Amino acid sequence: MSGTLLKSASESARCCDPLLKWPGGKRRLVQFILRLLPQRFGRYYEPFLGGGALFFALQPRPAHLSDNNAELISAYLQVRNHPKAVIKQLAKLRNGETEYYAIRSEIPRTEAAKAARIIYLTTLAFNGIHRVNLRGEFNVPYGRKAHLRPCEPEKIMAVSKLLKKAAVKYEDFQVAVAGAQRGDAVYLDPPYTVAHSNNGFLKYNAKIFSWEDQKRLAEVAQELALKGCTVVVSNADHPSIRALYRSFDVLEIERHSVIAASSEFRRPITECVFHNRHGKNA
C-alpha cells in the first residue's frame, strides 16, 4: 500500500512542533494515539484540525486537513502559501502588554497580517489560550511572558513545508471525510459536547458543536469503519458519548487540563479515545 509509514517514537519526537496552541489540542496525547494507527496506511484525514498536533507528529502524505474555523484555516493557508509574507508581518509585532492589547483590538486588512495576528495572540495570550466570545472576538488577557518570541521564522518555514504536502480546507467534517476509502486513516477530535450539558469547553467556541453534531459524527465514524478505514476518535468520558461509540474499542486517558484560564477547569480529566484498531467496526 502506498501512503504513510508510521514513524517510530524517536522519529516522532523530532517532528515539527504545531504552529498554534489550540483549545482541545492533543500534544500530550499524541504518543497514545499513534499506537492506535496501523504501521502503514493510505490517505490521512483530520477534519477537526485545530493545532494539528497529530498531523505534525505523523507528517503523513497525502493528507486532507480541514476545520470549520475560517480564521484558523485562512492562517494555515497563508503560512503554507505565503510564509515570508507572514514572517514579515510578525516581525513588526513586539512582545509587550500595551502592544498586545492594541493588536488584540485591531482587525488587520491583509490575509498575511491576519495570520500573523492569530499566531501572535496565541503565542502571547495567558496560558497560550485561543478563545473568542460569541461575537468571534479574541478575549484572552496578556500572558506576561517577556521571553516568548512571537516571530520564529524557522518554525513558520518548517510548518509551511509540511502544509505544502496537504490539502487544507474550510469545511464541515462530514464533507471533509466523504472521500475516505479502505486503508485510509481518519482522526476525529471534536469539541467535547455531551448530552444535556452546556459544558465548560463550549466557552472556547464562537460556533457551538451541538449534541446533534456529536450524533452525526458518531454515524460518520461508524460508516468510515464499515468502509475499512482506521478510525480514531478523541472525546469526553461521559455515558452519553460512550453510548454513541459502543461498537468501538476504547482507551481511557487521564490528564491535567492546562489550557483553561480559570482554575475551575484546570483539574484532572479523563478522556476516551475510541478506535477500531483491533478490527472492530460498527
Structure description:
By secondary structure, this protein is α/β, with parallel strands linked by helices. It has two domains: 4-68 and 171-275, Vaccinia Virus protein VP39 (Rossmann fold); 73-159, Adenine-specific Methyltransferase, domain 2, CATH 1.10.1020. The chain contains eleven helices and nine strands. The strands form two sheets. Strands 5-4-3-6-7-9-8 form a seven-stranded mixed sheet, with helices on both faces. Strands 1-2 form a two-stranded antiparallel ribbon. β6, α10 (211-227) and β7 form a beta-alpha-beta unit. α4 crosses α5, α4 (70-81) packs across α8 (153-163) and α5 runs antiparallel to α8. It is globular.
Shape: globular
Can you name the CATH architecture of the largest domain?
3-Layer(aba) Sandwich
CATH third-tier fold name of the largest domain: Rossmann fold
How many domains? The number is 2
Please identify the top-level CATH class of the largest domain. Alpha Beta
* Fraction of residues in helix: 25-40%
Structural class: alpha/beta
Q: CA-to-CA gap between the ends?
A: 24 Å
Q: Cα-atom Rg, whole angstroms?
A: 18 Å
Topology pattern, helix = H, strand = E: EHHEEHEHHHHHEHEHEHEE
- The largest sheet has its strands arranged as 5-4-3-6-7-9-8
**Total number of β-strand segments?**
9
- Largest sheet, strands/sense/barrel: 7 strands, mixed
Which stretches are poorly predicted, pLDDT < 50 over at least 5 residues?
A: 199-206
